């Protein structure tokens, strides 16, 4: 354990060294996933099927992810029922599954092995070298970029990330296996389980307070990332964003303890330096240089990034991927070229449609830094036209903690509408509403009682070339179609203006 944490544990015991042993694939037997339709659970179920294991699962309602798993041989149960865990050996759950869930209760009563989804993912990774991507934000896009890049250089990677990768057609796949193979995983910090993967390469995009409903304090978040770095395999490398103060602290500490570190950023003291970032429409470019010693060997050079996604934050994500390529020994020009094939992940600045020349994009951003990055990218794509946003706050605790920061980020839009909070796993908190954001003093940021109200306001004023962003982690992903429908009903801009 790190010296500064020996006398004051802020986290559950499993998050401190020595880390618990993860199960092996061979001991899992017949596996049942409770809540198999979720993005993370469906990805792991897909991997288990690819490994040749018997897989079943359940959910409260059907969806496209379950259809894919059915086609691959999984048994799917709708709805959930205690009888569904009969004749299985291992039950996989996420933190979202409550102890009162009938299948979980039945599994425990029967003495079945119950494991967290992170344990199942760790078992799937066990036969490969691994890249685990963590961070308060950017981990889905970065792990997706790394997966596309490894695929593009011919490494045949396995991967499991939090969204469907457009260039690869899935959020998970089993590639080559064996000691020289690679597995890329998004390492979710929300419940502390990201310490279980023992990666060869640990990527940290940034460290900021979030998920305080689990951690309780920003100090506990910091402690969790310390333990994630402590979980690195030996030998292994920490890849960290030098531009982010939290990630820089991690990198400095690990290097001071004798660990191998690769940093990336826009200042000359980073190991991998990003220069001349430019954006045009939905593309971005930059020059990347490096001069580092790795495992006793000197590496120096330069390459040019040409990305098919907008935003300086995505250039940083791509630089993290290049650090992984550098450590893995890939040709850097080839790796940079492979990154140009990355066209995005689901709900990450995803185009939902166009009406009357107005483009509607959807983004999963649910932290102020993410919201700001999404809207800065929208500014580039809009190229002088108006940017509208509809934001749905996610969690009462997060809204309470970051209300003013959300308002400041949303003010990057020309007009932002904030709808009611999506509660997810929380009960309402007295006095915590979306008005904490809209009353923060930014005139561009206004309350809307419903997505329909926001869509109507936007449709009545938007013009050819404008951009609409729907932003958040709840059911806001359905709002894009509401906006598109309003734009259709409003009619052509010239007809509306002449009325």
What does this protein look like?
The chain folds into 3 domains: 23-115, Rossmann fold; 126-339, Mur-like, catalytic domain (UDP-N-acetylmuramoyl-L-alanine:D-glutamate ligase, 3-Layer(aba) Sandwich); 350-498, Protein-Tyrosine Phosphatase, Chain A. The protein is globular. Helix 5 (139-152) packs across helix 10 and helix 14 packs parallel to helix 15. The strands form 3 sheets. A 10-stranded mixed sheet has the order 8-7-9-6-10-11-12-13-14-15, with helices on both faces. It has a 6-stranded mixed sheet with strand order 16-17-21-18-19-20, with helices on both faces. The chain has a 5-stranded parallel sheet with strand order 3-2-1-4-5, with helices on both faces. With 499 residues, it is an alpha/beta fold. The longest helix has 17 residues, at 312-328. Helix content is 33%, strand content 24%. Helix 12 links the parallel strand 18 (387-392) and strand 19 (415-418).
* Rough outline: globular
The CATH topology of the largest domain turns out to be: UDP-N-acetylmuramoyl-L-alanine:D-glutamate ligase
Specify the structural class: alpha/beta
Strand content: 15-25%
Helicity range of the residues?
A: 25-40%
The number of helical runs is 16
The assembly state of the depicted protein chains is single chain
Radius of gyration: 23 Å
The top level CATH class name of the largest domain: Alpha Beta
